[in-house]
Amino acid sequence: MASPFLYYADDRLSLAELSAARLDGDVVELGDAYIPADAVETAALRAGSLLGLLGELLAATHVSAAWIHGALPEPPARHTVQRAVARRIHHIPSHRIVYRDLAVDPGDLQRIGSVWVTTPVRTLVDLARVGDADHTRAARLLAQGRPDLVDEALTRLERGALPYKRAAIALLKSCTGPDAEATAPMTM
Known about the structure:
By secondary structure, this protein is of the alpha/beta class. The chain has helices spanning 15-24, 43-48, 51-54, 62-68, 120-130, 133-143, 147-159, 165-176, 180-183; strands spanning 27-30, 33-36, 58-60, 79-83, 97-103, 109-112, 115-118. Strands 5-4-3-7-6 form a five-stranded mixed β-sheet. A hairpin with a 2-residue loop joins strand 6 and strand 7 (115-118).
């Protein structure tokens, strides 16, 4: 069930009504939905804003999950998703997603705002293994001030055989070392 604080186009209000309310300052955009301008932006609202995009079959992962968990201030232009169900999906619902056809282990998923999202540990492991600038930045922001999360992610990486494991471990160790504050990107 979606939050009563989330307004989707053509659900309770038309897109024209939501656009007018946005111009009047009554609502602001959040992901694929709108929320009251005075509402506190929470993980549940960020996740719930993607309900129409993710449905019951897909889980937010990587930078999309990092945004939901509050590490990134803005949602990504294209959301990264994976299957939240064991069966294969034959129709990808949108061109606005980066779809990875690998089911996420149920132990790595949590329900936030009526959608599936990878846990913070799984999200951090996934981000650290990609290695490009956006994923590295998101990993550093998610890890910032959370040494327990970094330790859990390192333990998980050291357990299994995964692609790009060494680079991910090096990145995560740099997030907790004495120079972690100096290498963490500035946020506003």
